[in-house]
Amino acid sequence: MEGAVRRRPPEEGESYFMSMTDMMVGLLLIFIILLAYFALNLQSKTEELTGANRTRAEILNDLQQSLKDKGLQVEIDTKTGVLRLPDDVLFDKGRWELSDRGQAAISKVASAMVEVLPCYTTSNLCKEERSKHLIDAVFVEGHTDSDAMYGGMNNYGLSVRRAETTFTMLQFNQPALRGFLNKPAGQPGSAPILGLSGYGPDRPIAQGDSEAAKKRNRRIDLRFLMTTPSAGLDKDILRQER
């Protein structure tokens, strides 16, 4: 027919280019979806971590207030999760046996723990809603100054013996603490939250050789560790949390 226009079929190169463009667009969409998924997952996990930190701070503040009401002043560090008991409150210099004053102090600490901690563990003493952030462990840590010991005992041994004495007396005063578990009994990893360790002079909180610095470094720390998510989290994030 006159006037008819013959259309030229698309060239092979143009068709190939269009196919490659469609494929790249598809891959980009998949990448964006995956990126959004991992961002949301990371946000959720990070919120769990920061939520656990907030819960730990609440625990420490409640313990400090409970002990203040009982007539015992203690120091807390919500960033590191530590409740600090000065050495001179508990022990005579160079000794690991609790003094009379120390026994009274540990009795108050044990009582405060039974009041505050049940709903942050799987204890059956919890009478309210259980926290979604549970305590994984409470380490009773012994610390000393750097002065040399005599008579067959060194600072590492002294710190362990003091931690052991404190650990034992906490449970002696409040046997219910033995039932404060990090997970329900029978589940893998279920264990009592209380543990102990001794560091000797290796973790000072005050620098120098003054008597004031040595007095601060001689102490018992109760270090609270919370159960936090770990699967799929970057190690740097977990390191910052600790």
Automatic annotation (TrEMBL):
The keyword Membrane applies. The keyword Transmembrane applies. Gene3D superfamilies: OmpA-like domain (3.30.1330.60). The chain crosses the membrane at residues 21-40. Keywords: Membrane, Transmembrane, Transmembrane helix. Coiled coil: none annotated. Residues 78-228 form the OmpA-like domain. This is Outer membrane protein OmpA. It comes from Novosphingobium panipatense.
